[in-house]
Amino acid sequence: MLVKMKFPITLIPAGTQIDFIGKKSIAFVFSLVLTLIICVLFFVKGLNLGIDFTGGIIFEIKTSKEVELKDLRDLLSNAGYKGATLQNLGQADTILIRIQPKDNAEQKQEVEEVKNLLVRHLDKQVEFRKVDYVGPKVGKDLIFKGFSATVLSLICMMIYIWFRFNWQYGVGAILALAHDAFVTLGFYIISGEEFNLTSIAAILTVIGYSINDSVVIFDRIRENFRKYKLTDVVKLINLSLNETLSRTIMTVLTTLVVCIALVIFGGEVIYGFSMAMLIGIAFGTYSSIYIAAPILLHTKITKL
């Protein structure tokens, strides 16, 4: 007779009693100071907006042989087109190039300059399949739509939490999500990495991860409220955070491993996206524990 032995993975010992709520004031001050710093830098330094938002020229080319994107990127950078983005379109010999126009340069003149540069580098063996120009008006429209998508996602998340739990939980969730989105935006401001549509995707992904983490904690808090009706609210929230801590750590570690792999091996093209995800997910876990849950105390929550 075979006996199956089960060895569950337990990162946090049973009965752990970390006083998370006791440190909420320190966490609130830290988050407030960080938010103020990001606000100041936003108005002083601003975002390094990419072609998606500022406008630019898009080339779709086909070469007779495989070309290293890094070599082309360096070529364009040396010619004054820093921040150019390149990607393969399905095949190694088909490349999409986005460049931001130089200051006070005419569109037609720059198109011809880039064409001549590529022809010289690729020994005339290049086919220009498409040349498009993204104007500033389109860029402003994309900024508005990106901002609207982020705000709408926050509102939808708050409504979801409101209906699934109570309005108090919706307040905690929206503050935590806004905090995570702002910190992720702060990464782009501080680092100077290009902010484009991919950056919007990174912020929305961080929001999705953070709300999932908060829902797990909220679920345990609600369960403990029903189970221990006479226990102090502070003790119940601390108990819930400790009971879900092992799951929280395992989830964030496995996710961060993937993000770190993308940062190291993903290459220059997705570096900004990968770093934003890495920082955003780390702060998403922090906000679920030190913002979303403690906020419940300030909403005078008593029962579910």
UniProtKB/TrEMBL annotation:
ATP-binding listed as a keyword: no
Gene Ontology molecular function, alphabetical: protein-transporting ATPase activity
UniProt KW keywords: Cell inner membrane, Cell membrane, Membrane, Protein transport, Translocation, Transmembrane, Transmembrane helix, Transport
GO BP of this protein: intracellular protein transmembrane transport; protein targeting; protein transport by the Sec complex
Main location as per UniProt: membrane
Task of the protein: Part of the Sec protein translocase complex. Interacts with the SecYEG preprotein conducting channel. SecDF uses the proton motive force (PMF) to complete protein translocation after the ATP-dependent function of SecA.
Family, per entry: In the N-terminal section; belongs to the SecD/SecF family. SecD subfamily.
Protein name, as recorded: Protein-export membrane protein SecF
Species, as recorded: Candidatus Jidaibacter acanthamoebae
Gene name of this polypeptide: secF_2
